[in-house]
Specification:
403 residues; alpha/beta; Spore Coat Polysaccharide Biosynthesis Protein SpsA, Chain A; ten-stranded mixed beta sheet; 13 helices; 40% helix
C-alpha cells in the first residue's frame, strides 16, 4: 500500500503590508518575512517509526504578486528542515505546467491554487499522480507526537470492517493542552452561535467513546486518510470557501462513502492566532452553512446516490444546517454588534450586523449546489482517468514533481 502525505502551506504578504483587498482569505497565512510552522511540522516526521511514504508540500500564496517569493521561501525551508522521507514541492509554476500538459485543457479549472477546496483537491490529485493508494492530508500547523501514527493511518483504510469496506478515515486534533475538546472563552453571541459547544458535544460522543472506529458527522481537514477508490471519484467542492473538510464528508456520503473516525489517530494542532475579526469568521461560516443546506435541499433521486439530511450531521454541523439558521445568525449578530460597540469598535459592529443582511439577501447561491456537484464530480472522475493514462502520468511526474 503506497501512501503519500500532502501538506499545504499558506503564505501571505510581509507582516508590515498584511492582507490586501483581492488576496485569498485563509485562517492564518504566514507572512513572507516570518518563518512560520512548516519546518517544525517536517522535523516532527522524525518521530515516526514507519517512514515508508512520500511527502508533497504544496506552497500556496495569497496573491499572484508574491507567488515566486513564496515558492523560493518554501524551497529554502524544506531544504533546511531535512525531511527524513522523499519530499516534493508543488507550487504555482508547477501548476501552470501541469495545466499546459493536460490532454483536455477544459478540465484544468479543477486544478487551482486558491481557496481551501481547490488546494485540498490538489491533495488528492498529487497522490494520484504519484501512483498512491492512499492520500494522507496533514496541515503545516501540526506536529507528530505518536510514533505509530502512520501504522494507525494504514490500519483500516481499504480494508473491511464490520462488513463494510473503509475508504475514508478521519483522525482528530489534540490541542496545546493535549485535550481534544475546544476551550473557548464564552461570549454572549455564542449563546445563539453555539458552534464550539456543538463541536465539543460531537467530539465527546465520537472521539471520547468506544468503539475505536465509528461513523462520524465531522472530520478534520488536517488529519484525513482517503483511499484512491474515493479520491478517484469524489472531489472537494470548489465553491465551498470554508469548512471544506466537512463538506467533503457530505459529498462522499452522497456518493455512498462513509467516513469513520479513529479515536486513536491523533495529531497535535498548534495553530497561530487567527488574524481576522470574529464577524468575518462568522460570515465565512454563514456562507458555507447556507451553501451546504442548499445542497441538501436541492438533492434529487439519482441511481447510485444516497440522499442525506441535516440530521445525519448532528450535533455538528447539523445544528447549522436547519431551518432556524437565519434566526441564529440574526440573534448572534445583534449580540456581537453590541459587544463591539462596548469595545468602541463601531465599524466592526456594523459588519456584524451586515451578516444579517447577507444571509437574508445574498448568501443563497445563484446556481444549484447539488447540480453543480454532479458536474464537478463527473469532470473530476474524467480528469483522474485521463491522468491514469501511463503516458500522461509519466510525463507529468518527470517534468513537474521535483525533489
Amino acid at each position: 500500500m503506497k501512501l503519500t502525505m500532502v501538506i499545504p502551506t499558506y503564505w501571505g504578504r510581509e507582516k508590515n503590508i498584511g492582507w490586501q483587498p483581492g488576496d485569498a482569505v485563509y485562517d492564518h497565512p504566514t507572512p513572507l518575512n516570518k518563518e512560520g510552522t512548516l519546518v517544525r511540522t517536517i522535523e516532527s516526521l522524525n518521530i515516526l517509526n514507519d517512514k515508508d511514504f512520500e511527502l508533497v508540500i504544496i506552497a500556496t500564496a495569497t496573491s499572484q504578486e508574491i507567488e515566486d517569493k513564496v515558492e523560493n521561501k518554501v524551497k529554502g525551508l524544506v531544504k533546511r528542515a531535512k525531511s527524513p522521507v522523499k519530499t516534493y514541492i508543488f507550487s504555482h509554476s508547477d501548476l501552470e505546467r501541469v495545466k499546459n500538459k493536460l490532454p483536455e485543457r477544459e478540465l484544468s479549472y479543477l486544478l487551482q491554487l486558491r481557496g481551501y477546496s481547490n488546494i485540498r483537491n490538489l491533495c488528492l490529485f498529487l497522490p494520484h499522480l504519484l501512483n498512491s493508494d492512499v492520500a494522507l492530508l496533514i496541515d503545516d500547523d501540526e506536529v507528530f507526537e505518536d510514533p505509530f501514527f502512520i501504522e494507525k493511518a494504514k490500519e483500516f483504510i481499504g480494508k473491511e470492517y464490520e462488513g463494510e469496506k473503509i475508504f475514508a478515515v478521519a483522525g482528530y486534533y489534540l490541542q496545546e493542552d493535549n485535550e481534544y475538546l475546544l476551550s473557548k472563552e464564552f461570549k454572549p453571541y455564542m449563546f445563539y452561535w453555539n458552534k464550539f459547544e456543538s463541536m465539543n458535544e460531537g467530539f465527546r460522543k465520537i472521539i471520547g467513546e468506544e468503539p475505536r472506529l465509528k461513523k462520524t458527522p465531522f472530520v478534520f481537514g488536517g488529519n484525513m486518510v482517503i483511499h484512491r477508490e474515493l479520491f478517484m471519484k469524489v472531489p472537494f467542492d470548489p465553491d465551498v470557501t470554508r469548512g471544506e473538510d466537512i463538506d467533503y464528508l457530505m459529498n462522499a456520503k452522497m456518493f455512498g462513502y462513509e467516513f469513520y473516525l479513529d479515536n486513536k489517530l491523533a495529531i497535535k494542532h498548534l495553530p497561530p492566532p487567527k488574524p481576522h475579526p470574529t464577524w468575518r469568521r462568522v460570515r465565512e461560516d454563514i456562507l458555507r452553512f447556507v451553501y451546504e443546506r442548499e445542497k441538501i435541499r436541492k438533492q434529487k433521486e439519482i441511481e447510485g446516490m444516497v440522499r442525506i439530511k441535516a440530521e445525519n450531521f448532528d450535533p455538528y454541523p447539523g445544528v447549522f444546517l436547519k431551518e432556524d439558521l437565519e434566526e441564529k445568525v440574526a440573534k448572534a449578530s445583534e449580540l456581537l454588534a453590541l459587544e463591539y460597540l462596548a469595545e468602541e469598535k463601531p465599524e466592526d459592529a456594523k459588519e456584524a450586523l451586515n451578516n444579517i443582511r447577507i444571509i437574508e439577501e445574498s448568501a443563497v447561491p445563484t446556481k444549484d449546489p447539488f447540480d453543480n456537484l454532479l458536474k464537478i464530480q463527473k469532470d473530476w472522475e474524467r480528469l483522474m482517468k485521463i491522468i491514469d493514462d501511463k503516458g500522461v502520468k509519466k510525463s507529468l511526474i518527470e517534468e513537474f514533481l521535483r525533489e
